[in-house]
Amino acid sequence: MKTDELIGILATGARPVAPHRLEQRFGGAALLGLLGAGVLMLLGYGVRPDLAQALQLPMWWLKFSFAAALAGVAALALLRLARPGMRLGHALAWVLLPPLVLWMMALAALQGAAPGERAAMVLGSTWRSCPFNIALLSLPGFAALLWAMRQAAPTRLRLAGACAGLLAGALATLAYALHCPEMQAPFLAVWYVLGIALPTALGALIGPRVLRW
Amino acid sequence: MEIEERLRALLLQGLAGEARDYERFLAALSTHLRAFLRRRLGQWPDEVEDLVQETLLAVHNQRHTYRADMPVTAWAHAIARYKLVDWFRAHAVRGTRNVPLDGADELFSTQDQDAAQARRDLGLLLETLPDKQRLPIQHVKLEGLSVVETARLTGLSESAVKVGVHRGLKALAARIRGLA
Q1: Over the stretch A72-91, which tens digit does the pLDDT of each residue have?
Q2: Can you give the pTM of this predicted structure?
């Protein structure tokens, strides 16, 4: 086939393209991830019984803000990674900001605590299950976001996969915060971050294979 | 840059549904792609036109990833570069480190008008697609019928015709890469 023929084929009957199709797809996938994580959380773990009281505490809102901020910056980075030739700019630096703030707060809390209490602040009572729960809740969003990314044109597949996993993990954390009884910054700084790191690492691992186009 | 503005205007018209401008965009782009790829595939001249066509198909299939505030040249260069790197990787070509891949400006600094025949026949590949993709492409894209006419002719719904064209071209791109 001659190239001119191909160009004719591609251009003939070419339909208008909606300008925000990419944002809509990723928005839909993120919503699906959030809802999926919420449903899994309700079915598997349930809302913490003292949620009404917990919502009065700044610590709960710190947890929520951490997950929401991480989801926000991850979504911005994801949209950049979805478009060929789009500069990443400081998108990756922004992604590091929420965990850095959390780690600093955790260190401050540990410093202010008596040496004997520190281990308990880090381990809480659910450290064995927390990261795996978050990773499990992230699966619907992980699948939906990778699907959305497959409709786009990422050129850095490993990074795009990792970022999809990161956003899925952050969305899962938002849902998990409604269940999780832990209220100490050092706990969040270790186990929440680890829970989000699991889907992120999985995304980096499979990105080059599943996102190729 | 003059080329940037010309291509951008044509692409934006094309994305708005102006098929004539879109065709001019693809034609102009193809001459730059050919020059770009010919320089990088010096040892494999027979591959150039195949890769030009593959990149054009990718540009078309991924055209919704262009955003009006991005330089078209950077966008198209990133797609061409991705397809080239992928080709090198798939063919496990040694010494690719010596091939300069970067330089969006350079992609658009020269043109190569010799529209050639590709070795790979996309027409043959088209025939391997399932009917619900092949027929819409045949009627809409090759014969220039409207979606309504094609729907009447094939018995498919109008949305099935549109989806068939879209999926068919994506399937074609995937088949080229051996992904499907």
Answers
A1: 999 999 999 999 999 998 99
A2: 0.89
Dihedral, CA atoms, A142, A148, A154, A159, nearest 10 degrees?
-10
The identity of residue B83, as a single letter, is K
Q: Contact B82/A153, CB-based, under 8 Å?
A: yes
| Pairwise CA distance, residues B139 & A4, whole Å | 18
- Cβ–Cβ under 8 Å, residues A81 and A88: yes
With bands split at pLDDT 50, 70 and 90, how would you rate the model's confidence at A154? Answer: very high
Q: Which two tokens stand for residue A205?
A: 């691992």
Instruction: Give yes or no for A155 touching B (CB within 8 A).
Output: yes
Amino acid at A67: A
DSSP annotation string for B33-85? HHHHHHHHTTT-GGGHHHHHHHHHHHHHHTGGG--TTS-HHHHHHHHHHHHHH
Dihedral of alpha carbons A142, A147, A152, A153, sign: positive
Helix (H, G, I), strand (E, B) or coil at B117: strand
Q: What are phi and psi of A3, to 5 degrees?
A: -65, -35
For residue A124, which phi and psi values (nearest 5 degrees)?
A: 55, -145
How far B102 CA sits from the closest chain A CA (Å)?
11
* Tokens of residue B72, six digits: 């078209």
Instruction: Give the pLDDT confidence of B130-169 residue by residue, as tens digits.
Output: 999 999 999 998 888 999 999 999 999 999 999 999 999 9
In chain B, the residue whose alpha carbon lies closest to the alpha carbon of A5 is B142
pLDDT-derived band at B114 (thresholds 50, 70, 90) equals: low
Comparing CB atoms, the residue among A15, A19, A155 nearest residue B162 is: A15
The Cα A160–Cα B8 span in angstroms is 26
Average pLDDT, chain B: 87
Query: What pLDDT score was predicted for residue B93?
Result: 63
Cα dist from A12 to A21, A110, A195, B14, B19, whole Å: 21, 66, 49, 11, 6
